[in-house]
Each structure stands twice: as structure tokens, then as C-alpha cells.
Amino acid sequence: MKQVPALKIDGITIGQSLAIIEYLEETRPTPRLLPQDPKKRAHVRMISHLLASGIQPLQNLSVLKQVGQENQLTWAQQAISSGFNALEQILQSTAGKYCVGDEVSMADLCLAPQVANADRFKVDLTPYPTISRINKSLLALEAFQVSHPCRQPDTPPELRA
Question: Which residue ranges does the record assign to the GST C-terminal domain (predicted)?
């Protein structure tokens, strides 16, 4: 599909974020990104898919081009707000310090870039205190600071930190 991300590793190329994360979890299980408890693991996967499949694709450049320049901001804001409304409710029963309990998981890896997109599209995060609190905790971690979308080599100058 000519999209990112793609990871070349162990003699194969893997596309799609969740497939990459799950491969890394299975082949390099430290640090653990999926909890051992099956119910918590299901929550992590549910949140990850909500973010990666339910919200994020609606802001891809190919979709925004179809929406038209004059409608892009409103479209992205509505897509993010709709998804964040659902996510905020889910997090009421799953969150600890992070999306599911007190350990960073695959769900958190999906949340941080989506909050960055929300900032990019000027979404008011006031109605999402749990999302905001978790993101603040994540951004205190070095791994999330250096991997933030605004710090990537291909980030357009106007979006850089």
C-alpha cells in the first residue's frame, strides 16, 4: 500500500504497526507489551485496535485528500473526537498509570501518536482527562520522548518540536 511503517527484521519485512508490535513481542518479549493475564491482554488489543484501526486511518493523507482541503480539519477533529469519546469510557475501567494497569503496553504505543495527531489537528483534549493523564505519563518516559512524531527525521519542519 506504500504506507509506513514497515520493519525489516530477521530476514522478513513486516508492515502495519500492530503486526510489527506483536512480532516484536513474540520474538523479543522484554519489555513485555502484552500482559500475561488474558483479560488484560484482550483490553490491550481492544484499545490498540480502536486507535490503530478505528481512529488513525481516518487521518491518513490518502483519506484527507479525498475529503478536500477545506474539510480536512473538521473531518480529522470529528474522527478523533468520536474515537476519543469511546476510548475515554473504556479507559475508565482499564487504566492505571497507563492504558491498561501500571505497565506500558501495546495500547500505550498506539495512544501516544494518536494524541500527537489530536494536537496536530487542534482537538480540544479537555473532555478526555484520562487520555491526557496517560499521555502525560508516557511523555515522561525517554522512549516516548525520542520516538514522538515531532522528533522524527521525516517530520515536516512546521510540525517539528
Answer: 37-157
